[in-house]
Amino acid sequence: MTSLRAQLERPVGPPRVVVGIADLGLSADPESLLITYALGSCIGVTIYDPVARVGGMLHFMLPQSSLSPERAKSAPLMFADTGVPLLFTRAYEMGARKERMLVCAAGGAEILADEGHFKIGSRNRTMLRKLFWKNNVLLAAEDTGGSHSRTMALRLSDGLVTVRNKSEERVLWPT
Amino acid sequence: MADVSEILSLKKLPSMPEAMARAVPLLLDPDLNWRSLEEVVKRDEALTTAVLRVANSARFGAPGRQFDLRAAMTRLGRDEVRRCVLSQQVSGIAGGENAAFGLQRGALWRSALGGAIAAEHLAGVHGMRDRAGLAFLCGLLRDIGKLALNVRYGDAYLSAVAGHARDGVSFTDAERSALGFDHAEVGAALARKWKLPEQVARAIEAHHAPPPPGPGHDRLLDVVHAADTVCRWAGLGVGVDGMEYPLVQHVRESLGLDRRAAESQIGMVWDRLREIEDGPAQAETRGAAA
Q1: What is the pLDDT at residue B279?
Q2: Residue B15 DSSP code
């Protein structure tokens, strides 16, 4: 029997798996919620297999690992081209199937008045689209660009993806 | 509507840690008085523990554990002692959640440390090695205004500013339209209240808008401004203000920041941050950030 103290201390809402920067999280627990904060120019990618009820989330920072092959080895989740394959591979290991996967993305913002000098957010978006196109993966929904920050969450019970921008939260998937 | 002086008079405002107040002048002195610094560290148990932990971490893998503070400080050397002392002290005041800027627990602290690392590095590679320690301190403290605004407004801050936010308008402009001041100004006032060197207050004040070459220009301010942008790209300290600050043109040009240099800086900051967080010295802080 659960003690009164345990009941009182139980956090409200589903258990959260917080995905940090240059990090990924996976879960097959239908009670859990994957969440990542502070998406600026970084991009959050969620994948969800509604049959296997396996979900994953990646928070990557930069588009290409060719910037630093050494760093790509020690921190592959930092880059789109090394992090995204890892996200999918780990989900397959948990029983997810590519053809059932629902994929969403959020983030890829730019600093104000970037004027094409850096375009780190847009290069992240381009690299992600290129990777998906090459691998026949369709994006079910995305919320990218602008200059604002985003918080992205994936609910494992039904695959609901939400994006919060400042104080407003909206459902990204189902569309 | 509040003004800066009202905010500075709030009773719950964070005060500068005592050891930090005593250590800053010593750490910025080119002729560091090790004996005096040891006295300062010794009086603060948590700080002593932090220094010993770093000295005994794998990163400084000299053989044998070191329990003597003076020997540990010697093993670390001046630059590392400075980093350790300042970051340990600031972690105590910046480690909590910041509801005003929508930052989770530990996020403001990680951004402070990231900014310190970036500013120190940029100062070193742009001919200011002698000011690298000062740059580290400025990067570390650049957002202390957010601490004060969190005390004053809490999560009501965004709604106070939101009505003035427009596409293409910087967050500091929105703050000024809404409140008559911005977080950089509040931070500089707090630094002056804490009697930090005027250069630190100026760097905090100008960390989103360093003055162009001419009267008032100081490359230290450029470096701190660029470090702040690098942090934002690295996802550090990205709260309700998002990416809503520009990188000033003269800074981009004078520091030669192009796409590749920016991405290298982002990677470098991230590597250093992980290195520090994976070390035993910051174990408590890492817990706070999770």
Answers
A1: 63
A2: P
Decide if A131 contacts A84 (C-beta within 8 A). yes
For each of the domains in chain A, give its residue range(s) and CATH number, in order of start.
17-166 (3.30.1330.200)
Considering only CB atoms, which chain A residues are within 8 Å of B232?
40-41, 111
Active-site residue flag, A104: no
Asked whether the beta carbons of residue B243 and residue A59 sit closer than 8 angstroms, the reply is no
* pLDDT confidence of residue B64: 74
B233·A118 Cβ contact <8 A: yes
The single residue of A22, A34, A42, A131 carrying the catalytic annotation is: A42
Query: Which of A41, A115, A151, A168 would best serve as a mutation to test chain B binding (most B beta carbons within 10 A)?
Result: A41
pLDDT of residue A11: 52
Counting Cα atoms < 13 Å in the Cβ hemisphere of B70 gives 5
User: With a cut of 70, which residues of chain B have pLDDT below it?
Assistant: 1, 61, 279-290
Residue A48 has pLDDT above 60, yes or no: yes
Among chain A residues, the shortest Cα distance to B245 is held by A112
Taking the CA of residue B234 and the nearest CA in chain A, the distance in Å comes to 7
Secondary structure in 3-state letters for A116-143: CCCCHHHHHHHHHHHHHHHCCCCEEEEE
- Identify the structural domains of chain B with CATH numbers, from first to last: 4-289 (1.10.3210.10)
Determine the distance in angstroms separating the CA of A64 from the nearest CA of chain B, rounded to an integer. 10
What is the pLDDT averaged over residues A33-60?
Answer: 97
Nearest to B184 by CA among B215, B144, B211, B216: B144
Of all residues in chain B, the one with the smallest CA distance to A109 is: B243
- pLDDT tens readout for residues B59-117: 886 777 778 999 999 999 999 999 999 999 999 999 999 999 999 999 999 999 999 99
Find where tokens 């006295």 sit: B39
